[in-house]
Amino acid sequence: MNERIRELKVQACKWASENVPMNEYENASDKKFAQLIVQECAQGLRDYAKFLHEEYPHEYDDLTAENCAVIIEEQFGLWDHKV
């Protein structure tokens, strides 16, 4: 397991310990961990799109990767339509 995944797992466990009753901890921790992974993937797309657009403004538009990020978030019920 790479270091970033370990960090996300720790973050999920900490969140669950602070926000849910102990009898719901494991399920809430797993759910939060999955949510953090999806958000990390979507953010990676957004960051890469920004980089490409800044480096090659006439060849890449950042909307394609943003659309991909939104599709990933929608697939997992994480995209906020208000944003």
Question: Which key features would you list for this structure?
Answer:
3 helices; 0% strand; 73% helix; single chain; 83 residues; mainly alpha; elongated
Record field, number of beta strands: 0
Structural class: mainly alpha
Number of helices: 3
Number of spatially distinct domains: 1
Indicate the low-confidence ranges by residue numbers: none
> Rough shape?
elongated
How would you spell out the order of helices and strands? Answer: HHH
Cα gyration radius (Å):
16 Å
- Strand residues, percent: under 5%
Mean pLDDT: 86
Main beta sheet strand tally, sense and closure: none
Description:
This protein has 83 residues and is mainly alpha-helical. The protein has one domain. Helices cover 73% and strands 0% of the residues. The chain is built from three helices and no strands. It has helices at 3-19, 25-55, 63-75. Helix 1 packs across helix 2 and helix 2 packs antiparallel against helix 3 (63-75). The longest helix is centred in the middle third of the chain and has 31 residues, at 25-55. It is elongated, with a radius of gyration of 16 Å. The model has no long low-confidence stretch (mean pLDDT 86).
Short synopsis of the structure:
The protein has helices spanning 3-19, 25-55, 63-75. With 83 residues, the chain is an all-alpha fold.
How is the secondary structure organized here?
Elements: H1 3-19, H2 25-55, H3 63-75
